[in-house]
Design a protein that fits this description.
It contains two helices and five strands, in the order H-E-E-H-E-E-E. The protein is globular and about 75 Å long. It has a domain at 28-112. The chain is of the alpha+beta class. It starts with a helix and ends in a 26-residue tail after the last strand.
Length: 138
């Protein structure tokens, strides 16, 4: 009897682990600012692009720093707009660099690599691909 009960418990435990494991289609790329890396703006803060389960989004939003428009700075990464931001420039996917407006006074200005990177002032290399990057720090 103890053996049957033990096997039943083991089977139920394994089935609960298997059924709780999300598939790859439940994942999103998430913009995350580690503790101490947010300094007020996405352009000058260190961001990490993480792969998280969709179910974890509310928990991550609960501790997100805020942008100047009071919206969360953390959120789903998009290949078009990048991480949430006020200025409209994205974060590069390969090296997680926040692009900046070539002319900050012009909202239609192109997004380019920031000062301090090898690609400063230029569009990122391999734009629109998973290898989009600014060439690393100078």
């Amino acid at each position: 009897m103890k053996l049957k009960l033990g096997l039943l418990s083991l089977t139920i435990g394994l089935l609960s682990i298997i059924s709780a494991t999300p598939g790859p289609d439940h994942k999103v790329l998430w913009c995350h600012y580690p503790p101490g890396q947010w300094n007020g703006t996405p352009e000058t803060s260190k961001v990490l692009i993480l792969s998280i389960d969709v179910a974890a989004e509310p928990g991550h939003l609960g501790h997100s720093p805020l942008l100047s428009n009071s919206q969360p700075a953390e959120g789903v990464w998009s290949p078009v707009s990048g991480c949430p931001n006020v200025g409209g420039c994205r974060v590069t996917q390969f090296d997680s660099v926040q692009l900046v407006k070539l002319d900050p006074q012009n909202p239609e200005s192109a997004c380019v690599c920031p000062v301090g990177t090898n690609g400063a002032g230029a569009p990122p290399a391999n734009a629109g691909t998973e290898f989009e990057n600014c060439g690393g720090p100078v």
